[in-house]
């Protein structure tokens, strides 16, 4: 399979119904990424420490952490590396509608799958999995299988990998939700408050001055704090949030392009189309039709 995924501050579409990248290694200091995608994505951390940003919340990640990102969900990771440290992770991503067909015989597993696919979740992270947990052996086994099987066998092997993976995740998910409920807190950091404000206001023209007044912080301090904490600027994060919503609207509505532009807080259609292509690599019309350009 792939030795790496092409990822950055952008939108990632699945090239096929399934994608698996095993033990991607990064040695660059303070590595970070913001992106979204159509499919479900599971990130498993083998080595490295940092934090993930999901739904305006910042959570710590480290070795043996599993993080789940829902379709079209804007998210980011930032990893802090020492001089000799590395960030090693595996990524399993897939189109949920394709996987659902394989789960028809398994009622309980299918119900769990639909829950994590379509509902708002209490948590999307499982931390401190046991050393030598089944995910590690499963990934190692299927990395070998997928690298050596014939093209005609790949879909079948992928489906077996995903079913086995989901079965294990289903067994550890309830315990994680219980731990999250016991340790939950309503306290938000300034970064989380900034992202929450953007979530509530991205559909209108952005004014840093209004955000500054809301938080009772200077504009300069807000900009500096956000970039230092997330690795990206407020403007870049806002664009990504708007483009993520534009992707969803293009796939799930019949609204014309100029109305989608307005729905995501922009007034200039040409600017919107340019930013959308920068973000996805495709024009809004080609994205909606599913045709490559």
Automatic annotation (TrEMBL):
Keywords: DNA-binding, Transcription, Transcription regulation. InterPro entries: Homeodomain-like_sf, HTH-like, HTH_AraC, HTH_AraC-typ_CS, RmlC-like_jellyroll. Residues 192-290 form the HTH araC/xylS-type domain. GO terms for molecular function: DNA-binding transcription factor activity; sequence-specific DNA binding. The keyword Acyltransferase does not apply. Pfam families: HTH_18. This is AraC family transcriptional regulator.
């Amino acid at each position: 399979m792939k030795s790496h995924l092409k990822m950055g501050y952008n939108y990632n579409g699945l090239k096929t119904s399934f994608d698996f990248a095993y033990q991607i290694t990064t040695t660059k200091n303070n590595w970070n990424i913001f992106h979204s995608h159509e499919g479900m994505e599971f990130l498993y951390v083998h080595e490295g420490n940092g934090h993930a940003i999901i739904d305006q919340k910042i959570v710590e990640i480290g070795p043996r952490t599993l993080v789940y990102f829902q379709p079209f969900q804007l998210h980011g990771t930032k990893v802090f590396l020492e001089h000799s440290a590395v960030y090693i992770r595996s990524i399993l991503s897939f189109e949920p509608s394709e996987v659902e067909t394989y789960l028809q015989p398994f009622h309980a597993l299918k119900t769990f799958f639909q829950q994590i696919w379509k509902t708002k979740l209490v948590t999307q992270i499982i931390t401190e999995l046991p050393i030598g947990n089944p995910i590690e052996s499963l990934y190692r086994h299927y990395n070998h299988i997928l690298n050596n099987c014939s093209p005609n066998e790949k879909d079948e092997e992928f489906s077996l990998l995903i079913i086995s993976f989901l079965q294990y995740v289903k067994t550890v998910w309830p315990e994680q939700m219980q731990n999250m409920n016991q340790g939950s807190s309503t306290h938000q950091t300034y970064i989380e408050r900034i992202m929450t404000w953007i979530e509530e206001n991205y559909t209108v023209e952005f004014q840093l001055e209004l955000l500054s007044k809301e938080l009772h912080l200077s504009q300069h301090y807000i900009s500096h704090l956000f970039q230092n904490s997330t690795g990206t600027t407020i403007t870049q994060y806002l664009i990504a949030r708007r483009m993520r919503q534009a992707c969803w609207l293009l796939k799930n509505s019949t609204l014309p392009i100029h109305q989608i532009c307005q729905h995501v807080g922009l007034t200039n259609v040409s600017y919107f189309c340019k930013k959308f292509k920068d973000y996805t690599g495709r024009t809004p019309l080609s994205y909606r039709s599913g045709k490559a350009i």
